[in-house]
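User:
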Amino acid sequence: MNTIFHQTNKILINELAGEKIWRVRLASPEIAAAVKPGQFCMLRVPGTRAPLLGRPLAIFRAENQAVDVVYAVVGKGTEQLAALVAGQDLEIWGPLGNGFPLAEDPAEWPTRPLLVAGGIGQTPMFLLARAFLNQPTTEKVTLLWGSRDRAHLACLADFEALAREFPGKLEIMNATDDGSFAYHGFVTDLEKAKLESGQFKPENACVYSCGPKPMLKIVADLAHKAGLKCWVSLETPMACGMGICFTCVTKCKDETAPEGWDYCRTCVEGPVFDAEKLIW
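Assistant: Predicted structure:
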């Protein structure tokens, strides 16, 4: 079980990062030190009753005793969050969830990880990419990231700076639905082409993905056909974030269950799942 910190901390920055996408930075040495790639937190504006519940959001960066969370404004809760400014308080609890599975011995990690993000699904990928890049055994990290248009590729500059920090080790390929930037089409088109290139083999590669569920299914199907292990991070709506309320369940294969499947809590057993164990 993770150690979960529940705090009310000062906002350091809260700025527009893309089309209706914001980045908030909170002072939180404890969460910054404890978070693993793929974990998330709950954010809530203190003193509010509508909405009462926090919002589950992936932790994008964790450094200098602070955490960055990148979020899309899609409803009342995120609208309230976007209205806050530096110096105001924000309630946070985390780190939550299981995160992407990485062996204790980095020598066992895949040397050619393939990261596939769709929409706001880049948010758990920065910490994951950095984790791989910090290992000398990693040959190259490939990030495929698709969005509706260039304006929704929020914080692309962070990944580009990471690529400059590790010359030749991070490959970034983008796709946009409208063709306004890079490849005109879906990110799964890029994945298909990459997997057909022969660079990614079961003995050296693994697929890690986050994005809308229909996209994740295609990502998983392509990985399966290529014989690659695939881990997907679900964007399931949550209420408590700690496994208490059972509102974020998803169907998972379970040979011990009478019907061959059972419900898993995305906030606790996930948000990262072995794609082969999900019932799509």
